[in-house]
Structure formats: structure tokens, C-alpha cells
Amino acid sequence: MTPAGGRSRLKVGVVGIGWAGRQHLDAYAGRDDVEIIGVAGMEPDLLAELRDEYGVPHAVARWEDLIALEGLDAVSVAVPTFLHAPITVAALARGLHVLSEKPIARNGDEAQLMVDAARRAGRVLEIAFNHRRRGDITALKRVIDDGELGRPYYAKASWLRRSGIPSLGSWFTNRDMAGGGPLADIGVHVIDYALHLLGEPKVLSVSASAYSELGPQGRGGGTYGAQAAGSAFEVEDFASAFMRLEGGATLLVEAGWAAYREPEDLMDFRVYGTDGGAALSRVGGPQDAVETLRVFTEKGDHEPEVGPSLGHRGVVDDFLAAIRAGAAEWGRHDGSLALDRARIIDACYASAAQHREVHL
Questions:
Q1: What percentage of the chain reaches a pLDDT higher than 90?
Q2: CB neighbour list of residue 321: distance below 8 Å, 6 or more residues apart
Q3: pLDDT tens for residues 39-81?
Q4: CB neighbours of 217 closer than 8 A, spacing ≥ 6?
């Protein structure tokens, strides 16, 4: 049973028609139990193209018009970060379930407003952490949970690019719109999958550094958008953070849009445990990445079987499953985990600015 009148098909809408919004549209379109009834975006030609491609009856420019659609059950929010909180809070107030892109918001205070709104409305609020739906992450999670590594005590995780700064002058490099640079943009994925793999230990303190060296010179953006020297660059282009975790373990996180390193993107995770260790890496671009996963133990080293990566399809499937689980379960999906990630990132930026360890 669905939350709106017992209909067999959930009626959904998508706000935002950039790369992320199209991932949501594609994932919804692949479900027989979903009807996409609305899409909102500011690019008229692309909006019309997506309307026709997905057979969407309502294509509007304003997100306010989309969330007001009759019969809407849920909405995806795939827009610049500064818009996550206002759209999500308004949608929840109308009784809609919300799936928002990461990061949940520009900072923890905005994220708290979103979580509070979900709790008041009694509706689902989920955040799109699609990388934890990768096949290699799922396989390593199974290894750790099965106890093969014993007790993990140290881990290192990163997402590094050589020339991956989103276009200078865009919302990505505007502090007020984005909330931060790579730590908030791609680092939030790293923090999420690292803590997920480690069993969600509480972060007790962080000691972080943030650098803005290449972006202000117009360097470091050949892959992800044209750069122009002299354009505004208000965020960091590289950050690292050392985190002390509850139980005594530690985690080192690196997130970089640009650095003089190998040309291929790298996402990795390495963990040392009392009975074994593991190394995971994903090298290359989104379409051609090569994933490797190795486990090291006294009994011998091996490469676990890795299943398919689900990406945004997995995110959307989980979101819809949470909705269909019924009102008794909705309170377990209120965005709290993403709020935790936001508080960690806030502490990292505070540590970097103050040149000291910050306790959470």
C-alpha cells in the first residue's frame, strides 16, 4: 500500500535536470510501480527534451509549481546545494517524501532544519549516497561484517582528481552556494562509505587542513569544466582530515579536486584490522573506472567476488522501499545519518580554519 490513497503506483517528481537529476529520472523510469508526473528545471530546451523522453505530463520551471502538483507522493531534489534545505523543507511540509542529492545541505544547521521537518511531517527523508551502492563497497562491507579482518583500527580513504574542479564562477566554487569545495562535494562520499564500512562508529574529533592553491590560478579544471584565470574561486581545492573514532580506531580522509598527481581519478579505501586488512581502489572516470578489491589475512590473500554497482538505481530503490514500508517505518529514515556527515564536515572546516583539533 502506498502512503497516498492506497494507489498501486507512486507518483513522483524531480527537481533539477543536470547530471544528477537525469540519474533520478532514469532510475524512476525503470520502475513499473512509479509514475513520473513532474519535472522542474531552468533550462527550457533540456526540460522539453526530458519531458518528451520520459513522457512527463508536467514540465515546469519553478520547483514551487512542481511540489504543488495534485497527487504527488514524493520528490527528488537534485539542484545546487544551497537549494536543498528550502525545497526539502517546503516539500516535507506538503506531506511529500524527499530524496535529496548529497551533501544534505551547506552545513549542519541547515541539515538539522531538514531532519526536523521530516520528523514533523512524519515523512521519509533520504540522501543520495550512491557510492555505498557500488559492488566493491558492498563486497568489502560483507567481509568486514563477517569478522574476517577482526577489529579494524586504522583506515584511509580518498577521492582524488588531477584536474577536476567544476567550472570557476559556477555554484560549485561559490562558498555561499556550495558550502565548501571538494570536502563537501566529493569528500562527503568518502566519509560516508568509510564510516559505513567501519560500522558507523561515532567521530569524536577531527584535525583537518584545507588548501586553495590551483583553483585561484585558473588551474585544475580541464576535465570537469572550463577554467578561467581571475574568476572567483572561494573554496578549497584539496582537503585532508584525521578523525578519531569511538572505540579507538582512526580514519584519514583526503578529498581533492586538483593536485599534481596521476591523471586518472582515484577513489580508495584501505583498512588494517587485528586479523586482516583490505585494499579497495577505483581508478578512472565514471564510465571507464577499473575497480580492484583485495583482502589480506594470515590464511592467505584473496579477491572477493564483486557484484554489480547499483548507483542511483540502488538509491532510488531504497528510497521507494522505505516509503512502501509504511508509516511505522518512516521515522527510521529522517536524514539523521546525512546530518551526522554534515556535522563532521563542519568540524573539519572549523579545524582547518582554526589550525587545531575540533571535538564533536
A1: 90
A2: none
A3: 999 999 999 999 999 999 999 999 999 999 999 999 999 999 9
A4: 229
pLDDT of residue 225: 58
pLDDT in tens, 245-266: 999 999 999 999 999 999 999 9
Distance of CA 248 to the CA centre of its chain: 26
Residues 6+ apart with CB under 8 A from 219: 163, 227, 258
What cell numbers appear for 25 in the block? 529520472
State the residue for C-alpha cell 590560478: 217
pLDDT over 70, % of the chain: 95
Q: How confident is the model at residue 231 (pLDDT cuts 50, 70, 90)?
A: low
Q: Which amino acid is at 75?
A: V
pLDDT at residue 5 greater than cutoff 50: no
> Scanning the structure block, which residue is given the C-alpha cell 571535538?
359
Q: Which of 342, 353, 11 is nearest to 192 (CA)?
A: 342
Q: Which three cell numbers stand for residue 335?
A: 536524514
Q: List the domains of the chain with CATH numbers.
A: 10-131+312-333 (3.40.50.720), 135-309 (3.30.360.10)
Output the CA angle 175-74-346, nearest 5 degrees: 25
3-state class (DSSP) for residue 36: strand
d(CA 234, CA 211): 11
Nearest Cα residue to 20 out of 103, 87, 144, 89: 103
**Which pTM does this prediction carry?**
0.95
Strand 203-211: give its sheet, edge to edge: 290-297, 276-283, 266-273, 152-160, 250-256, 238-245, 203-211, 358-359
φ, ψ for residue 351 (rounded to 5)?
A: -65, -45
Lateral strand order in the sheet of 10-15: 58-60, 34-40, 10-15, 74-77, 97-101, 125-128
Question: What is the spatial distance between Cα 169 and Cα 344, in angstroms, rounded to a whole number?
Answer: 27
